[in-house]
């Protein structure tokens, strides 16, 4: 569900000196302060919208003072709060195709998306339980961002039984053309879910052409069968798709994929935030939206799935949380996640205590790192394949961005090429070359710092 703005956090780096053989895994990432819940009560799957100087947030159905609200709404004068939950229902009247769900005691009105059309009308997409039993996507309109929104038509906008239902709508406007991004609900039937996009007329209701599949969950990986909350932003000459993966109440996390066109599959890249980002504070983050230079998401709080917001910036095309934990200056051994083997010179080998496997990280003024081999005292360089070690000059091909990926690993990308440190062919053998390669969601591009 979508969002947009900017914040920066000044982090003071601690320079540590330890013996080369010392293990530093516990200190690899300095903890930055975790974002605090801006709405501590249950307010999941929030979609954020800025209208003039006011921000509005719309959430999945929830209770307020004992009343069930189909679409709760909150407002704030700043994206970082304070937020006020208004206690009113933005969608108080549901169409006849919506059925009550006895087990949940709701109409299963989920994951709204609100945008303003070119004609000034506010358009809401929402998901609700259909009389057939599946989840379907409807539309509603209002002259104001606070509603009440009035459902459009007597049937859902999209309701495919062969998809096992359709949920999590998100609006997208590119070069004046309007699109609807959504997912099928195949994971509700134990099958891998997919993300779809379909162009609409300017009213956001009538379809143009055919839909296109952008992404499908990998049931063998960390996504299980789930791809939730797709939202697309345009970044330079490509599109970035943020999505949530795995079960919402267990190991939920936010990932991203990239594409150069809206009519072809996107390539999965990596993880933006998971349970290891702030392990003592943020649990099961997901249901995200992107607004400008901010990422909104929900995470578990004592009151439910509360709204959180954190700054979002970009390095080498990688979305990075502005207050994410950073790597402290120091000396580390780098081991590839897929093989468990260490970067030794310009190849991977079985980990030892050799200084050829020890690398000193020194943070630079542009937030990149100089990575120096302890044995040679030369800098890791991405001038050619495979990587090399050369005398430090400070050029971009010797500067590396080191950003958290999932499960405590890091992605290391060369500033000059934007390519990631990669074990060639995902080899697990000793002496396999280490290269730089275009970023993708693979274990041979994720590194433990120990």
* Percentage of residues assigned to helices: under 10%
| Alpha-beta content class | mainly beta
Kindly provide the radius of gyration, computed on alpha-carbon positions and rounded to a whole number of angstroms.
Answer: 23 Å
- In DSSP terms (H or I, runs of 4 or more residues), the helix count works out at 0
Q: What characteristic shape results from the CA principal axes? A: elongated
Q: Write down the CATH class of the largest domain.
A: Mainly Beta
Overall average residue pLDDT: 92
Total number of domains = 2
Structural key phrases:
single chain, 450 residues, mainly beta, Trefoil (Acidic Fibroblast Growth Factor, subunit A), 2 domains, four-stranded antiparallel beta sheet, 0% helix
Describe this structure in words.
The protein is mainly β. It folds into two domains: 36-325, Glycosyl hydrolase domain, family 43 (Tachylectin-2, Chain A), CATH 2.115.10; 327-449, Trefoil (Acidic Fibroblast Growth Factor, subunit A) (Trefoil), CATH 2.80.10. Helix content is 0%, strand content 45%. It contains no helices and 37 strands. The chain has strands spanning 29-30, 47-51, 54-58, 62-64, 67-69, 72-76, 84-89, 110-116, 122-129, 135-142, 150-151, 166-174, 177-184, 194-200, 212-216, 227-235, 238-247, 250-259, 267-273, 286-291, 294-301, 304-315, 318-321, 326-327, 330-332, 334-336, 342-344, 347-349, 359-363, 369-373, 379-381, 388-390, 400-404, 410-414, 420-423, 432-437, 447-449. It has a four-stranded antiparallel sheet, with no helix packed on it. Strands 8-9-10-11 form a four-stranded antiparallel sheet, with no helix packed on it. Strands 12-13-14-15 form a four-stranded antiparallel sheet, with no helix packed on it. A hairpin with a 7-residue loop joins strand 10 (135-142) and strand 11. It is elongated. The two termini are 36 Å apart. The model is unreliable at 1-27 (pLDDT under 50).
